[in-house]
Structure formats: structure tokens, C-alpha cells
Amino acid sequence: MEILEERLIEKFGKKIVEYGNEPCNYHRVTDANGYATYTGPCGDTMQVWIKVSQNVIKEIGFKTDGCVFTRAAGSVLTELAKGKQIEEALQITPLQVDNDLGGLPEDHKHCALLAKDALGKAIENYNDSKDKIR
Question: Which CATH architecture has domain 3-133?
Fold first, then answer.
């Protein structure tokens, strides 16, 4: 491991560095039935795609133009939401994302909120689309 990476892990924690550099679920879901683009107050934008079947998030992916902390938050959020019922996924909090990462720096706590809000918008889009089909 490089000295720089070791120092980053010391400062920010292993999970933030790993997920920030190699995010999980960092892809577009081509057959998604829910999608949203959301821009947070910091200016970072996150896109979230979900594929829902029988009210369960079967597949989820995200992309962002944000920083390493936003990528880490998106990774954790998508891992937490995958396999959950829609209602359960909506209950995921920014604090859960933050805790799962081992604690975001104070000036990046908003990254967890950005990820949660983007997921909420994707679920809203899924629900709106579902209602139109009925």
C-alpha cells in the first residue's frame, strides 16, 4: 500500500478511501424503472437508477460528479438499499450512511444527505411511473 493511501486511511478511514476510489454500484442500470438526478446545496449532482420488482429494489446504480466523500456515500447508500422493500429503503437515514462509513468529516456530512435525497427522488419517479401504468 502506498504511503499516501495509508495516510488517507488514517485520516478518513478505510471504507471512505476504498468506496471513494472504487465505488460500489457505480453504473447506470439500463433497464431501470426508477431514475433521478439530484443536485445538493454543495453543487454535487448524483444520478440514481433503480430496478424494482414486487416492491423490492433488485438492482441499483449511481453516478456522480462529486468528490470522494459523495462517491463513498453513494456506494454505502446503494449497498444499504439493494434488496430492500421500497418502504424500508425510504427509511435509510443520512446518519446510517455516515455511521456505516465510519464518520464523514464534518464539512462533508451533507454527502450522505445528497445520496439519500437522490434515492428518494428515484423512488418517487418509480412510484409516479407505476401510478401512470395503473
Answer: Alpha-Beta Complex (3.90)
